[in-house]
Design goal:
Length: 775
């Protein structure tokens, strides 16, 4: 199916039929060419062609069907007029005046249809001038060969000069229109070629009728053949599926310097003087003296052609100038776009500061030179976005950028690295700490944000460039200094030193080793007893993670637990400890009623499937929920207050919740009332007094015990290492204690031995008071 066809309703069968009809029409054309004219009724071929063309327009419905119908009306009028003229000529009778006028109007109608079919936007003036040039040039030829002889020859056509002139002009216009149509088609199709052949044959047939050489006996052989060709070609053009391709997509302006246009204008330049030449030749032969009336028309036509050529040249020049201006505009726009793209590639779109790429490039140029790199991070900027919105945050960032520019020297490079992080690259001889302090001091005044003000501080890490070898190393080292400054607190400045890099390397090695140990099964769980102060029985055990390196030496938890928190490995590590502790504690609980406490980090609590993981561990190990205690630090429970719903769900099934290291965090009584808590573990800071304790030292412990008793919470004292501590806590009625006095954290088999030595078999009624029952 052709590319220009409407895709609404595929017409595969009609298309095949139309192709077959086209082939049949061509076969009919060849048959008519080889058949004598007397076998055909006059007008039969033309009428058949018009009918076939009408059927083709109805079937294919081309985009400009109205232009086709106008051409068919004109061709029909020509058929009727020529049939009348032919019938009169065959009996040597002059045809009526209206028949010649009908031919003239038919030409004009066909020419109008062609003009509408080849119309294109944006080039009407140039197309009109081209059409006039071609028409006037052909009119000169028609005047010399047809019109001028009318004054002396006896013609079978009407002798009215006005009618003859109109007839010749119409024929010229028709030929001009078809030539313009052919030139307009950038990619001529089969249908456009057949249509061009049809119109040219129509003009040739008319010339054969009007030419004096044809005589009065009838049409010449050329005219007879042409009259057959145009009817068949017109029908074939409309029936061919490619008729919908003619100007389906409006063509843009045809290039003024196209080869076809050059050929047409060169031919017209040769033909334009033909009229005066014919007049001169005929006058030289003495056929008739050349009067002023003989010279005026061709001279006027030549003048008109020259004027039209000048106008056309002006239009071409104007078009070239417009294209040149458009090209210059395009070049300027392209240059501006390239500048904009380069600026965007090297600058932050919000603040206009240079970006990371510029900083890296400058560092590569100055890494071997003396200088200072300062990275500044805003403290508390996230709160601005969360409370006031990102629009207010962007406004604050713009003000920060302006202040840092003012705090820097003109030779310094100010960069926005991303989000709320900025950098200053200072030249040689700069006092790095003084420049960093000046930058942080510039951030102290309030920032306008929305309808109010916000106050921020900054933290800075600085690096002397001579300490790094590459730009990437420089950024890494300065960032390490910034991280160290953040660990100290807000509004701090830390200069890089090699130990920071060593610490980072050590943490990286610890993270890699911990991940490998987790998946290789080299982590283990040890347990520390929780003892009843009343009778010395083991009431519970606390599960503690242990990691032994390849050399068998234990890596202290205080070293790898922070790394696990920082890297997120604490979540899988916590899951491992939970399942292992539940598995080991099941037997201890069945025999001795022992509970197990497991530490839970804030990251674990934030996991969406935390509750499901705990319940799954209990179900897999068949440990009763009442035998499991989850320990969370006081700070974790306060900061993760939104996760208390998860803890409530676990308490509903019997799992108990303990606050670890109580007294070192927020210690707010309102939180104790609101939080789902069952047990308080008193931090060792209160239970391990100095060598000469103050008289009021144990008063804090007594206050905590009284508070827990009033809230019906159980208490466990941590860090018990001496008998004196145990004796004091016993006198204070503290029910449970934990520390090295009783045992260090030991593997599960050791706990089983301690239980068999310390505890009797579990009884339904415990010996201790309710306050001293195991957690």
């Amino acid at each position: 199916m052709s590319a220009g066809r409407h895709a609404v309703r595929p017409r595969y069968s009609l298309e095949r039929w139309s192709v077959a009809a086209t082939v049949g029409s061509l076969v009919a054309l060849l048959t008519m060419v080889m058949t004598p004219a007397w076998l055909w009724v006059p007008g039969t071929v033309q009428a058949a062609g018009l009918g076939a063309a009408a059927i083709g327009v109805i079937i294919h419905r081309p985009p400009r069907a109205f232009a086709w119908w106008i051409m068919l009306v004109g061709a029909g009028g020509w058929t009727i007029a020529s049939a009348v003229i032919r019938s009169r000529l065959m009996v040597d009778v002059a045809p009526p005046q209206w028949s010649t006028i009908g031919l003239t109007l038919s030409y004009a109608t066909v020419a109008a249809g062609l003009a509408l079919l080849s119309r294109r936007p944006g080039g009407r003036t140039a197309d009109l001038v081209d059409m006039c040039i071609i028409g006037v040039s052909l009119a000169v030829i028609a005047w010399a060969l047809v019109v001028r002889p009318l004054g002396s020859e006896s013609w079978p056509l009407p002798s009215s000069t006005a009618v003859a002139l109109g007839h010749a002009a119409s024929a010229a216009i028709l030929v001009g229109a078809v030539l313009r149509f052919a030139a307009m088609e950038n990619r001529p199709s089969t249908a456009s070629g057949l249509l061009t052949v049809a119109v040219l044959a129509l003009a040739l047939a008319d010339v054969a009728i009007a030419a004096p050489a044809a005589g009065t006996a009838g049409l010449s052989w050329a005219g007879d053949l042409a009259s057959r060709i145009w009817g068949v070609a017109l029908g074939a053009a409309a029936l061919h599926p490619a008729c919908v391709q003619i100007q389906t997509i409006p063509h843009g302006p045809v290039p003024a310097a196209s080869t076809r246009r050059f050929a047409v204008f060169i031919a017209l330049a040769i033909v334009a003087p033909l009229g005066p030449s014919v007049v001169a030749v005929m006058a030289g032969r003495g056929e008739r003296s050349a009067s002023l009336a003989d010279w005026v028309p061709p001279a006027a036509a030549a003048a008109v052609i020259c004027c039209l050529m000048v106008i056309r040249l002006g239009l071409i020049t104007r078009g070239v100038d417009a294209q040149a201006r458009s090209a210059r505009r395009s070049l300027h726009q392209r240059a501006a776009l390239e500048r904009e793209l380069r600026h965007r590639a090297t600058h932050d779109p919000l603040t206009g500061l240079a970006n990371r790429a510029v900083l890296l490039d400058r560092l590569n140029q100055t890494i071997d030179l003396a200088g200072t790199l300062i990275i500044v991070d805003l403290d508390g900027f996230k709160d601005v976005n969360d409370t006031l919105g990102h629009a207010a945050g962007d406004e604050v960032l713009l003000q920060v950028a302006r202040r840092l520019r003012l705090a820097a020297d003109p030779d310094d490079l100010v960069v926005r690295l991303g989000s709320d992080e900025f950098a200053l690259l200072c030249r040689e001889g700069t006092d790095g700490k003084a420049r960093a302090r000046r930058a942080l001091d510039a951030l102290r005044p309030g920032f306008s944000a929305g309808a109010g003000e916000v106050y921020l501080s900054g933290t800075a890490g600085l690096l002397e460039l001579g300490e790094s070898t590459t730009s990437a190393d420089a950024l890494r080292d300065a960032d390490l200094a910034l991280t160290a400054a953040k660990e100290i607190g807000k509004n701090q400045i830390v200069a890089f030193h090699s130990s920071l890099r060593e610490e980072r390397v050590r943490k990286g090695e610890l993270a890699a080793g911990l991940r490998k140990a987790l998946f290789d099964g080299r982590l283990s769980v040890h347990y520390q007893p929780v003892v009843s102060l009343a009778d010395g029985r083991m009431a519970a055990v606390e599960a503690l993670i242990r990691w032994f390196g390849d050399d068998g030496i234990m890596i202290p938890p205080m070293q790898f637990i922070p790394v696990a928190e920082e890297t997120g490995l604490i979540v899988p590590v916590g899951k491992f400890v939970l399942r292992r502790a539940c598995f080991d504690a099941r037997v201890w609980h069945e025999r001795y009623g022992i509970a197990v406490t497991v530490n839970v980090s804030g990251q674990q609590l934030r996991e969406p499937d935390f509750v499901e993981d705990v319940l799954a561990a209990l179900a897999e190990t068949e440990l009763p929920p009442k035998a499991l205690v989850l320990e969370l630090t006081e700070s974790t429970m306060i900061t993760e207050i939104e996760s208390t719903r998860a803890l409530e769900r676990l308490r509903d099934v019997g799992v108990r919740i303990a606050i670890d290291d109580f007294g070192t965090g927020y210690s707010s009584l309102s939180y104790l009332v609101r939080l789902p808590v069952d047990i308080l573990k008193i931090d060792r800071a209160f239970t391990s007094p100095p060598a000469q304790p103050a008289p009021h030292h144990w008063a804090f412990v007594r206050a905590i015990l009284d508070l827990a008793s009033s809230l019906r919470l159980q208490t466990i004292a941590e860090g018990i290492e001496t008998d004196q501590q145990a004796h004091t806590l016993r006198n204070l009625a503290c029910p449970l204690a934990q520390g090295f006095l009783y045992s260090r954290a030991v593997p599960a088999p050791a706990i089983a031995e301690l239980l068999s030595a310390w505890n009797t078999r579990y009884e339904e009624e415990p010996v201790c008071r309710r306050e001293a029952q195991p957690p």
